[in-house]
């Protein structure tokens, strides 16, 4: 970890690294990661997201609170004059100090677990990789160390939750649902605060000035981030903490609170709610079991930390990824046995494809190709690239196993799992299907974005790879 520079030195170095670099020099320095320049389409998209994404979240949550999760009735009411925007706004719960206290305790608790408790799970769980791990090399050539203890944080948090629910009774298991919209206000405050702090930090005291990218456009810099790996001290890493702590650990707690509310309202928890809880818990636990592997994914390896990650992880993830459970509180669905089995199989098969595809890639990387994939030694394309310090590196792109079926076959499994969450809710409303629509757009966009980076990074070697594996996500289709 490079020490932070003084303000004057930092500003001079940032200028040299970004605005003072010619096009040919950018190529030489390894132009992968976030964009150097912003076109008009990207700028308009960024401004639209900054303006409307918070209202999209509010709209869905409000639709459940006031219209039993119908996404069309609020529009009809506004069109017919039955309600006005002011009416809808005034009916929605606002910020409360109770919610602020709950949220502050929650975030503080996760910071303590993240910073103060070194991982012990890797010492007694066979196959689990935790403790201090190295991340991927940044464009500037830096390799950061991370304390991988997310699984431990998840276990402790849920142990406290169940101990409270069945023994201590400090708070109601429905506490999250009961304060849902006030908590949305608190999450927005944190999301905007951390994004703004990271933005200012990148200008005044970046962790590594060589890993900062300035486009010259305020809105793009704010949303997509300037600093690659902003940190406070040696261990508090913004990307790892906000990607993998308050939001995603809360995901399963939020679903448990929804189930508790269903039990309170109807005297039972429906099989659809159980399906959503189980399938999404598998996904969350998989994330924490493979947190060390996550250090090699696009979020950590390529994305800079800005509003896109800061606000997105605080607000978008916990409030929109949990829409299925929220919907089932207002619209309980009891599925037939055949439908339960079908949805469960779809989710489990999707998870298997997602996990095994990523496992094959991780195994290939760890052994440098000296392994067996589907019973034989994997084939690969030999590639080279330059980091920002001008150093040439070698890399291998596997074209065997699931990675020979499609270039992003892990996304195929992810989409199958996402669809299973939605199907568990039946077909009564569109709202629970927002997740599969959003995930399709997100993963297709991420696929194209990742391939653009790889094309810039590997050059003609990437063309050889795409010729060997022509399909992106769906074989013979896309």
TrEMBL record:
Keywords annotated in UniProt: Cholesterol biosynthesis, Cholesterol metabolism, Endoplasmic reticulum, Lipid biosynthesis, Lipid metabolism, Membrane, NADP, Oxidoreductase, Steroid biosynthesis, Steroid metabolism, Sterol biosynthesis, Sterol metabolism, Transmembrane, Transmembrane helix
Gene Ontology terms, MF aspect: 7-dehydrocholesterol reductase activity
Catalytic activity: 7-dehydrodesmosterol + NADPH + H(+) = desmosterol + NADP(+); cholesterol + NADP(+) = 7-dehydrocholesterol + NADPH + H(+)
GO biological process, one term: cholesterol biosynthetic process
Pathway: Steroid biosynthesis; cholesterol biosynthesis
Chief localization: endoplasmic reticulum
Entry's Gene Ontology cellular component terms: endoplasmic reticulum membrane
Places the protein is found: Endoplasmic reticulum membrane
PROSITE patterns the record matches: STEROL_REDUCT_1, STEROL_REDUCT_2
Region (Disordered): 1-25
Membrane-spanning parts: 40-61, 151-168, 180-200, 305-323, 335-354, 418-444
Annotated membrane topology: Multi-pass membrane protein
Assigned EC number: 1.3.1.21
Protein's job: Catalyzes the last step of the cholesterol synthesis pathway, which transforms cholesta-5,7-dien-3beta-ol (7-dehydrocholesterol,7-DHC) into cholesterol by reducing the C7-C8 double bond of its sterol core. Can also metabolize cholesta-5,7,24-trien-3beta-ol (7-dehydrodemosterol, 7-DHD) to desmosterol, which is then metabolized by the Delta(24)-sterol reductase (DHCR24) to cholesterol.
UniProt similarity note: Belongs to the ERG4/ERG24 family.
Protein name: 7-dehydrocholesterol reductase
Classification of source organism: Eukaryota, Metazoa, Chordata, Craniata, Vertebrata
The gene coding this protein: dhcr7
